[in-house]
Automatic annotation (TrEMBL), chain A:
Gene3D superfamilies: 1.10.10.2050, 3.30.70.2510, 3.30.70.3190. Residues 54-109 are annotated as: Disordered. Residues 81-90 have a biased composition (Basic and acidic residues). Belongs to the pseudouridine synthase Pus10 family. This is tRNA pseudouridine synthase Pus10. It comes from Coilia grayii (Gray's grenadier anchovy). Keywords: Coiled coil, Cytoplasm, Isomerase, Metal-binding, Mitochondrion, Nucleus, tRNA processing, Zinc. It comes from the Eukaryota. Signal peptide: none annotated.
UniProtKB/TrEMBL annotation, chain B:
It is found in: Cell projection, Dendrite; Cell projection, Growth cone; Cell projection, Lamellipodium; Nucleus speckle. It comes from the Eukaryota. InterPro entries: Abitram, GCV_H/Fam206, Single_hybrid_motif. The keyword Nucleus applies. Keywords: Cell projection, Nucleus. The keyword Cytoplasm does not apply. This is Protein Abitram. Belongs to the ABITRAM family.
Length: 541, 178
């Protein structure tokens, strides 16, 4: 079952003596059979002990048969916990470093009657021992279940203490000769990695508990992490040996990241390493501590168009000096039912341009998209999305949403593409100081593709750079209302500041409507009539 | 759209800016300045309507933003959102000097602490803007106070009511027989 071969014997012997756990031994023997890692910690230990204690003559036979014929534990009751029966003598490596002898295996409980705990592995610091058992799998599963996510599969990610790489390297140097003898082609890269072995051991149990496959790529990630503060100092000698690998970075609390340690280990020569670090590694006092299991689902994206019918509703929450200026916002009205349906932690809202608090958006509305982060629900069919849209629309009469749909992250960027080249249509209520007749404003409709130069408006200058932007007013038309009012319809290049085009902003937009009309004018109301962006696709009612 | 009943709608300045004043600048009678502060803290410096330049048919001979041999407000350049590189002005920093055809020269001051964002170059080629539309197209300069000073910069200034009081007192004094 373990598919161990005669050439593995010296490797296994040396690793057992060094205090390696069963799964780490399989790893260093480059055993790529996943099922071997699923054996219980005890059974695996038993089989390995049997393998090394069998004679040269019988070694070629399958390990199982050796267990049956040669295991010293044969005469023990089989339901006894094997950890009590088989235990490596912790002192066996003291004088046996280079010897070829079989490690001493102690049998049964110690003479004083106390339970001797299984030694913590010198390489994986226990990650591939107790943490590979059904109890820990259950603990992970319970943590996942308690978060109440909907998912069809999951990817397991494992974060290990950086010093595991140092210990791995030390152990590799310890048995390098024997591994190379086993096969010419094997190298350190062929050793099965700890996180891989951990996943092989545990993912079947997780899959059974959670009733979904554990795969290598999934939108749902379950992260398990281990720390071992007692041995954090293992890495420190590397900082002196390879100082260039450990540059302090802003958001990392320690320079000894796994990446940096791996890089340093690639650079350091064997002689220097062996001078600075014990080979094999020192035996640890206790096993790793598991950190809380965390879950993360990739973002969901929705898009649509919104109308805004209120002149007292900002697009996003309006806060000045930490104080809320207006109740609610377009963003909040749209997102509340979405957050609720997707059971999402937070969101990012973006739209094709934005309107001022006192501007309405009519017509087909303004395209918007929303990223819903870490959604606990992410699969919705068209009917369900429509129902969410209805919920938004029933919750308020200040806005209305249409064309709500699920989109991909890539599709979202299309909304921002070529935004400058798009056109927008507006309708503005204009006030004139001097009395006007219908004839006085007729000339405006004859102005085509008027180029204007706009300095950054004073009202946004505090948060935007000062610049002069060229914009085009493609066409305009007028509707006379009374001697002091008319409606101005405009089709403009996106990014044109309409209010400033009308009142001139202290003459900083040139030409402006006041100059064209040779009159004092002001803008009283403004509506966006259309945003000519053909995304997201329309959804028939 | 409903047309509001109001015939004279409040102007852009009334809606978004607060008017502040500094009168008799540097002890020179009637040299009053107006500071329009936007709700976003941006300030526009203009002549107050009582400034001597705007009285009884004055005309302008020249406007000069070169306030000393080494310093011209026309060289002011700002970049980025934080307006890096803009000249930092204190309350009595001169912005420009205006000479009228009667030979009198007036200095226009910053009135508030802040970074100079821009000066109005249009009045150099069309000085009549200063006379015809002193509080809009004839503005002098735009200044951005420091964020933390956006409230305190106007502390020493007069509000509209106080300014009107000063003006009416001035009128009374002038009408009193000497
Ligand atoms: Zn191990």
């Amino acid at each position: 079952m373990l598919s161990l071969r005669e050439k593995d014997r010296p490797i296994i012997q040396k690793l057992l003596e060094a205090g390696c756990c069963g799964r780490c031994i399989l790893r260093f023997c480059c055993i790529g059979t996943q099922s071997a890692y699923r054996l219980s910690t005890e059974d695996l230990q038993k089989e390995l002990n049997a393998f090394v204690s069998s004679t040269e003559a019988t070694a070629a036979a399958p390990p199982q048969s050796e267990t049956n014929t040669h295991t010293p534990s044969d005469d023990q009751p089989s339901d006894d916990p094997p950890s009590k029966r088989i235990k490596l003598d912790p002192d066996s490596s003291e004088d046996g470093g280079g010897s070829e002898r079989v490690p001493v295996v102690t049998m049964g409980p110690p003479a004083d009657g106390t339970e001797t705990p299984v030694c913590v592995c010198v390489v994986c610091l226990g990650v591939l021992q107790d943490f590979c058992d059904p109890h820990f799998a259950k603990k992970i599963s319970e943590a996942v279940k308690s978060e109440d996510y909907a998912f069809e599969d999951l990817v397991l990610s494992v974060s290990l203490p950086a010093q595991l790489s140092v210990r791995e390297h030390s152990c590799w140097l310890h048995i390098k000769k024997e591994v190379r003898e086993k096969a010419m082609v094997l190298d350190k890269e062929d050793v099965i990695q700890v996180n891989k072995a951990f996943k092989w051991a545990i993912q079947g149990m997780l899959s059974q508990e959670l009733k979904v496959p554990v795969v290598t790529k999934s939108p749902f990630e379950v992260a398990v992490g281990f720390i071992h503060p007692d041995t954090d100092a293992d890495c420190h000698f590397l900082a002196e040996a390879c100082s260039d690998c450990f540059k302090p970075t802003k958001n990392k609390e320690s320079v000894f990241t796994r990446m940096a340690v791996v890089k340093a280990l690639e650079k350091i020569n064997d002689k220097r390493f062996l001078k600075e670090y014990p080979c094999p590694p020192m035996r640890p006092q206790a096993a790793c501590v598991a950190q809380d299991t965390t879950c993360l689902h990739v973002s969901a994206f929705v898009a649509g168009r919104y109308n805004k019918f209120s002149r007292t509703l900002p697009q996003t929450p309006w806060v000045i000096d930490g104080e809320r200026r207006m109740e609610s916002s377009v963003e909040e009205l749209i997102v509340a039912p979405l957050l609720n349906a997707f059971k999402s932690d937070s969101f990012n809202f973006s739209s094709s341009g934005r309107e001022d608090v006192d501007v309405r958006t009519l017509g087909n509305g303004r395209p918007f998209a929303m990223e819903l982060l870490n959604p606990h629900r992410s699969k919705f069919n068209k009917m369900e999305v429509r129902r969410i849209q209805e919920e938004i629309n029933q919750s308020t009469d200040k806005i209305r949403v249409r064309d709500l749909q699920m989109v991909s992250r890539d599709a979202m960027s299309r909304m921002k593409e070529g935004e400058e080249e798009k056109t927008k249509c507006y309708s503005a209520l204009i006030w004139t100081q001097k009395a006007i007749a219908d004839e006085d404003i007729k000339f405006i409709a004859n102005i085509k593709d008027l180029e204007i130069a706009q300095k950054t408006p004073l009202r946004v200058l505090h948060r935007r750079p000062l610049a002069v932007r060229q914009r085009v007013i493609h066409s305009m038309s007028t509707r006379y209302r009374d001697p002091h009012h008319f409606t101005l319809q405009l089709k403009t290049q996106a990014g044109t500041y309409i209010k400033e085009f009308v009142h001139g902003d202290f003459g900083r937009t040139k030409p402006n409507l006041g100059q064209l009309m040779k009159a004092e004018v002001d803008i009283l109301e403004l509506d966006v009539e259309s945003v000519d962006v053909d995304w997201p696709p329309a959804i028939p009612e | 759209m409903e047309i509001s009943e109001q015939k004279e709608a409040p102007s852009v300045i009334d809606r978004y800016y607060t008017r502040w004043y500094r009168t008799d600048l540097k002890g020179n009678a009637c040299e009053d300045h107006c500071i329009l502060q936007h709700s976003n803290r941006i300030c526009v410096i203009t002549l107050a309507e009582t400034h001597p330049i705007l009285q009884n048919g004055q005309s302008i001979k020249s406007i000069n933003y070169q306030i000393s041999a080494g310093c011209s407000r026309l060289n002011n350049k700002v970049s980025g959102k934080s307006k890096r590189g803009g000249q930092f002005l204190t309350e009595y920093a001169p912005l420009c000097r205006i000479t009228c055809t009667d030979g009198k020269e007036y200095t226009i001051f910053s009135c508030i602490r802040g970074r100079l964002v821009e000066v109005n170059e249009d009045i150099l080629t069309r000085p009549e803007l200063l006379l015809e539309k002193p509080s809009t197209e004839g503005y002098i300069a735009v200044i951005l106070p420091k964020f933390e000073e956006s409230k305190s910069v106007t502390e020493g200034l007069l509000n509209r009511e106080q300014y009107e009081e000063v003006i009416s007192k001035r009128a009374n004094q002038q009408s009193e027989p000497c």
